[in-house]
Design goal:
Blueprint (H helix, E strand, L loop, with lengths): L164 E11 L10 E2 L3 E10 L8 E10 L10 E4 L9 E3 L6 E3 L8 E2 L4 E8 L5 E13 L1
């Protein structure tokens, strides 16, 4: 019914929208390279009939027709498989490098301009007067000199020998073993005589006796080169120093004076071990000499 006082008739109701046609199945994707055939497009649904236009309503409130229902959405087709990747073509060969152009010649160095004259050196100003020398301070007093400590007492003078010089020639052997020329050869620096021969052991040994012999090498001083011939100073063998494994102590001197005692400058002494007790250790031989001249 028209509003009172209005114009012509209101708009007619909106016609319904036609049903949406279903979407066709998606065609499979062809192998890579040539593009596969596109799937056929599904049939387009027929468009719904357009409703008849309503008569124009009376001017005033506009009546809106009811919204037609939306058609159903068609299903999406399956995704086609991806085609194989085509192989990459061979890289083309790089062209040859063109030759480098020649270096242009260096231009000639321009002439250096003339050096300007040096100006006249101005006179040196007057030297200022030297200030007066300050007064020298008084020297400080010198401290007192400390007292000198007492002189230590002089040690007792050793007894002077009866005009003779004594010396000791020494040989060592760690383990007593039978040997010739023990340790080293010792030369006589002056003329003299043999005073005594001593021997000792750190360990006497478990069995047997340790016996040593002293040899003198002598020659003719006028002979050039000087040569010596060795011989024992104990020609009486029983007089040689000896220590038994069951002896009373580890120190022993010769049982009697050597048969040969004199020696001259340039003679050489050596020691032999004639006998060695089992497990005897720390052998030491000392020849005490007295020098009588040069």
């Amino acid at each position: 019914m028209a509003e009172a006082g209005g114009g012509g008739g209101g708009p007619g109701p909106q016609g319904t929208t036609g049903i949406q046609g279903s979407t066709g199945v998606q065609g499979a994707t062809g192998a890579q390279g040539a593009t596969g055939v596109a799937g056929a497009t599904g049939v387009q649904g027929a468009a719904g009939t357009t409703g008849t236009a309503g008569t124009t309503g009376v001017q005033g409130l506009t009546s809106v027709g009811a919204q037609g229902t939306t058609g159903l959405q068609g299903t999406t087709g399956s995704q086609g498989q991806t085609g194989l990747q085509g192989t990459t073509g061979v890289v083309g060969v790089t062209g040859l490098q063109g030759e480098t152009g020649l270096q242009g010649a260096t231009g000639i160095q321009g002439v250096t301009g003339l050096r300007g004259e040096t100006g006249i050196l101005g006179p040196t100003g007057i030297q200022g007067a030297t200030g007066a020398q300050g007064v020298t301070g008084l020297p400080g007093q010198t401290g007192l000199q400390g007292e000198t400590g007492l002189q230590g007492a002089t040690g007792i003078q050793g007894v002077t020998g009866a005009g003779v010089a004594l010396d000791t020639l020494v040989w060592n052997q760690a383990s007593a073993v039978i040997s010739s020329g023990v340790d080293n050869f010792l030369p006589a620096s002056r003329f003299g005589t043999v005073v005594d021969v001593l021997m000792s052991l750190d360990e006497d040994g478990s069995a047997g006796t340790t016996t040593v012999d002293v040899n003198r090498g002598t020659g003719t001083l006028s002979t050039t080169p000087y040569q010596v011939t060795f011989g024992t100073i104990f020609t009486t063998q029983g007089n040689r120093p000896m220590i038994g494994s069951t002896g009373g102590g580890n120190k022993q001197r010769n049982t009697a004076a050597p048969d040969i005692t004199a020696f001259k400058k340039g003679d050489v002494f050596a020691v032999d071990v004639d006998e060695a007790a089992t497990a005897a250790l720390g052998l030491r031989v000392e020849v005490v000499v007295q020098y009588t001249g040069t």
